[in-house]
Amino acid sequence: MPRGGPGPLNNFSSLSVASTFIKSPLSESIVLLAIHPFDAQADGELNLSIDDYVVVREMGPNGWSGGECKGMAGWFPSAYIERQEKHQ
């Protein structure tokens, strides 16, 4: 399981934690909403606040996703984000 704190966007692709598990790059990025706060505990993780919009770039089978939020990039628990229902 990746552990790490947020980093600059250009460091996302070089995160060493990314190579510790099989990842599933998405064919295109998706924007999801953070439904729980997440405080990064180690290098390579991404802080999330409730209602943050997160650009998800890849999802790992171990329950972690990689993406970007507020100009930072890193890993976060997949269960902390969800699709936002469109309101009309």
From TrEMBL:
Keywords noted in UniProt: SH3 domain
One protein family per Pfam: SH3_9
PROSITE patterns named in the record: SH3 (PS50002)
Endoplasmic reticulum is among the record's keywords: no
SUPFAM superfamilies given in the database record: SH3-domain (SSF50044)
Residues of the SH3 domain: 27-86
Ligase keyword on record: no
Name of the featured protein: Putative SH3 domain-containing protein
Source species: Rosa chinensis
